[in-house]
Specification:
The protein is an alpha/beta fold. The chain has three domains: 135 residues, Golgi alpha-mannosidase II (Immunoglobulin-like); 269 residues, Glycosidases (TIM Barrel); 138 residues, Jelly Rolls. The chain is 19% helix and 31% strand. It contains twelve helices and 31 strands. It has a nine-stranded mixed sheet with strand order 29-28-31-26-25-22-1-27-30. It is globular and about 90 Å long. It starts with a strand and ends with a helix. Pathway: Glycan metabolism. One of its GO terms (biological process) is polysaccharide catabolic process.
Length: 682
């Protein structure tokens, strides 16, 4: 078998800089359907927060459930200190009917039972309500419960509804049944109010879907970022404390309701259960330095400090110890609340940094930077001493090449897989900037958002390009650049974790948030399917290799040409290597990993030679591939592109690897016993 490419790795040439596991981080944001998909609640409008635009007298997604001729519905003020509305149902006994509310949901089989929580009250003659989950198509009862109403005043009630099977087109119904004892209709009778209704499956992790938690755990993320455009208008105190008392607020960045069920405490729990470090971006847009400092104290202050006492009162007496805090999210963008000039942001940053450091001097601060140096220079000139990390966001797409959805797909492909060349140019400019003044020598780089973004987030049809193998190849090559720059890049946050926009690497259901035209969620009958995109498997592949340091590698291979940028500026793209390669060692020196991204459109046979490593051992090749680079995972085929593992023969420090076109590989070589001993001695 003749090789047409060669990779030479020298394990004795080891970088002085450790690879930070934070480079494989992720990112959660209250954007579009991110939280609805991530959290386990099947119901919407749980606090009856929406108005009655769809059905008069009924909040948002709720619908009437009655066969009574005179049943009336109305939205009334919420219970004391609660947000949203209360949903009123007026029932007339002489109708001899059932009456209540219903909402369409999708449920999974749950023998332990969904937890139903009601906050309700009723006139004294109404003694109980029935709750049931039914198949809307057949009227089959999937789970039922009877709830005794013990007070005329507001009270919380809980019940378990075991569900016998999965059902995509189910319905929750809560109602006074027709067999309830009748009463004499009068002005003060037949009244039922709901202030809150929620369902939660028994296997949820807090409020998070168990499947999402399990898939996220396999990503071995290192660090998880809470941020995004919404954060610049987010006031953290509105997202802590008793759930009922948290206000329902409009998401000022993305429209719709902000999710009040995933605040600071829920985010920290999410991170702790995953074993990852939290990174929180504060509101510098509509917020104040004092508010940001209070957030730091809430997370890190002792229980005898004002905000530490608040945290303890909310059930968390021990400080969270959140070390990483970001000031500013895309402040340079006109879409951002608090948008300003670089000079104005530098002044603002100093005020925030001083206040936050006063609350906890041990925290690390990230300042909002940009890929444009004319933003970064004024910021560093004024505030570099108070900055630990400069942040940038890297989104790679077709517009920078003047391309659109009519561009031939092979030309688009070559442009998209040039992602690392663009990243390398930006990092080099920042490296030069950091080296231009000894005041900047301590700075590190945090790429707090990155992904492919093929086209602007407007109306698109069909399955998203961001979910293809092509996007995974581009993102993998970009990760290689992060590893090559591990002396500078210490944090990376893939954008984003779940749904939200087209880039979410974990997908829940069949709805694509940027597809403003299209079928309603659940149209496939597979709206509860949870799966990973091809890029999910790239992130999983890279983050679980136990990397410690980059080692020297040289690659001989063919080249390709990508279309020049539309602006004329940017990296040279006329002779790009088909194979993008980076090699790493683990801490012991006994395991070597070579990441190989075949960006080419043809298969490659590559000879790999290892210098300064064990002569023999075990070799495994992790492979992410498909027959076509536009192959996509979906609810129909959630595992069309996944990671496969192959055992290879390794002897005399050489291997032969067969690499398919447009594919991602991790070659992992583990030294035999003698090789491990030699590494230990070395």
């Amino acid at each position: 078998m003749k090789a047409n490419g060669a990779i030479r790795v020298d394990a004795s040439q080891v970088s002085d800089h450790r690879i930070n596991s934070f480079v494989f981080g992720h990112f959660v944001e209250d954007i579009r359907d991110h939280m609805d998909a991530m959290l386990a609640f099947p119901l919407k409008d749980m606090d009856f927060e929406s108005m009655d635009h769809s059905y008069r007298g009924l909040s948002g997604y709720w619908r009437p459930y009655t066969n009574g001729r005179n049943t009336k519905y109305a939205l009334e003020p919420a219970a004391a200190r609660h947000s949203g509305h209360s949903q009123a149902v007026r029932i007339y006994s002489d109708d001899e009917a059932y009456a209540g509310i219903r909402q369409a949901i999708a449920v999974q089989e749950d023998s332990d039972g969904y937890k139903l929580t009601l906050y309700a009250r009723a006139s004294v003659e109404i003694k109980f309500v029935a709750a049931e989950i039914v198949d809307c198509m057949t009227e089959e009862e999937l789970g039922t419960a009877r709830i005794q109403l013990e007070s005329h005043d507001w009270a919380e009630y809980e019940a378990r509804l075991p569900v016998k099977r999965e059902c995509e087109r189910a319905e929750l119904r809560i109602y006074v049944p027709a067999e309830h004892p009748r009463w004499l209709d009068h002005v003060s009778t037949g009244m039922l109010w709901f202030d809150h209704v929620s369902l939660l499956p028994s296997d949820s992790a807090g409020f998070v879907r168990r499947q999402v938690m399990e898939l996220t755990g396999e990503l071995n993320a290192g660090i998880m970022r809470l941020a995004g455009n919404y954060i610049s208008a987010y006031h953290w105190q509105q997202g802590v404390g008793p759930i009922y008392e948290r206000p329902n607020l409009v998401n000022e960045a993305w429209g719709g309701w902000a999710n009040k069920y995933f605040g600071t405490d829920e985010f920290i729990r999410f991170c702790r259960e995953l074993g990852v470090e939290p990174l929180i971006c504060v509101n510098d847009g509509s917020g104040t330095p004092e508010e940001a400092a209070a957030w730091v104290e809430y997370c890190n202050g002792a229980a005898d400090t004002p905000y530490g006492r608040m945290r303890a009162a909310n059930g968390h007496p021990e400080p969270y110890g959140v070390k990483y805090w970001e000031i500013g999210n895309e402040v340079w963008g006109a879409w951002q609340v608090g948008h300003c000039t670089a000079e104005q942001f530098a002044e603002r940053y100093e005020q925030f940094a001083s206040a936050m450091k006063a609350a906890d001097p041990g925290i690390k601060l990230l300042a909002c930077g940009d890929a444009r140096m004319d933003w970064n220079k004024p910021l560093l000139e004024r505030a570099s001493e108070q900055i630990d990390y400069l942040t940038i966001h890297l989104y790679h797409g077709c517009p920078r090449f003047g391309m659109n959805d009519h561009t031939p797909k092979l030309e688009r492909y070559k442009a998209m897989v040039s992602f690392p060349e663009w990243t390398r140019e930006t990092i080099q400019e920042l490296r030069e900037l950091f080296g231009s003044n000894e005041r900047y020598a301590h700075l590190k780089l945090a790429v707090t958002e990155y992904n492919t973004m093929y086209y602007p987030n407007t109306i698109r049809k069909g399955l998203p390009n961001e979910h293809t193998l092509e996007a995974a190849v581009a993102n993998a090559a970009n990760l290689n650049e992060f590893l090559r720059s591990s002396d500078l890049v210490e944090i990376g946050n893939f954008s984003d974790l779940v749904n939200g926009w087209l880039g979410g690497c974990i997908r829940v259901g069949d709805f694509y948030a940027d597809q403003f035209r299209g079928k309603a969620p659940g149209w496939t009958g597979k709206g509860t399917v949870v799966y990973g995109t091809p890029t999910y498997y790239v992130m999983q592949m890279y983050a679980n290799r136990g990397l410690s340091r980059v080692i020297k590698s040289e690659t001989s291979c063919g080249t390709f040409r990508a279309q020049a940028p539309a602006s004329g500026a940017g990296p040279k793209l006329d002779e790009l290597p088909v194979l993008d390669v980076v090699a790493c060692l683990d801490d012991s020196g006994g395991k070597l990993t070579i990441f190989i991204v075949n960006r080419g459109l043809e298969a490659e046979t590559v000879e790999v030679a290892l210098v300064g490593f064990a002569e023999s051992g075990e070799a495994r090749l992790f492979e992410l591939t498909a027959d076509d680079f536009e192959t996509i995972n979906s609810v129909w085929q959630p595992e069309a592109v996944t990671c496969a593992t192959h055992e290879l023969t390794y002897a005399n420090r050489r291997l032969i690897c067969e690499l398919k076109a447009s594919s991602v590989y991790a070659l992992e070589v583990t030294a035999g016993r003698q090789g491990k001993l030699a590494s230990a001695v070395r």
